[in-house]
Amino acid sequence: MDFKDYYKILGVEPTADDKAIKTAYRKLARKYHPDVSKEKDAEAKFKDASEAYEALKSADKRRSEERRVGKECMERVDL
User: Fold this and answer.
1) What is residue 64's predicted lDDT score, i.e. its pLDDT?
2) Residue 63 — very low, low, confident or very high, per pLDDT cuts 50/70/90?
3) Residues near 57 by Cβ (< 8 Å), separated by ≥ 6?
4) Residue 20 dihedral angles phi and psi, to the nearest 5°
5) CA dihedral 27, 30, 31, 37 (to 10 degrees)
6) pTM for this one?
7) Which pLDDT value is given to residue 59?
8) How would DSSP label each residue in 29-62?
9) Of 12, 38, 53, 56, which has the maximum CB count within 10 A?
10) Largest alpha-carbon pair distance within the chain?
């Protein structure tokens, strides 16, 4: 699985709270919803935003995601 920076996808800082994450997701969801957007890659961007929101929408999920990403990074490092 390729690493995806969910914070970058949503355009928020890693220190963002639940409200900021939800606001960013809703903005992107409205912009890239396939029924609304005429952009060529709107569906892919909408799916990415939805995936990012699912991973970050609560403090518990953010901690879990941060542990997963940290573990993946450590596995890639040659010691």
Assistant:
1) 79
2) confident
3) 18, 21, 22, 25
4) -65, -40
5) 180
6) 0.78
7) 82
8) HHHH-TTT---TTHHHHHHHHHHHHHHHSSHHHH
9) 56
10) 48
